[in-house]
Amino acid sequence: MLVSGEVAREKIAPDVSLFFGFEELDFCLRVSRKGYSILVDCKLFLEARAFHNRKNYKVPFYTKERKFK
Q1: Taking a C-beta distance cutoff of 8 angstroms, is the pair 24, 14 a contact?
Q2: What is the pLDDT along the chain (69 residues), one digit of tens a residue?
Q3: Which of 45, 44, 3 is nearest to 24 (CA)?
Q4: Distance between CA 49 and CA 11 in Å, rounded?
Q5: Cβ–Cβ contacts within 10 Å for residue 51, how many?
Q6: Cβ atoms of residues 38 and 14 within 8 Å
Q7: pTM value > 0.70
Q8: DSSP run (H or E) holding 25
Q9: How far is residue 62's CA from residue 31's CA, in Å, rounded to a whole number?
């Protein structure tokens, strides 16, 4: 992840107590709340979808509720 020097000067940093990718989400939300834009190269997401054969995947309008015993 590339981060603007302005973000670092404002001392916006990830929360080290978070784990498994949530620190990145938290960091991006903090940056966004301070008014900075988050830019993502969508080509990377498209390549990942192609790799996992999910280019035609459609999110269902609803999800069926599952009951666990």
Answers
A1: yes
A2: 778 899 989 999 888 787 776 788 888 889 999 999 888 877 887 888 889 888 786 767 777 777 776
A3: 3
A4: 34
A5: 9
A6: no
A7: no
A8: helix 22-33
A9: 31
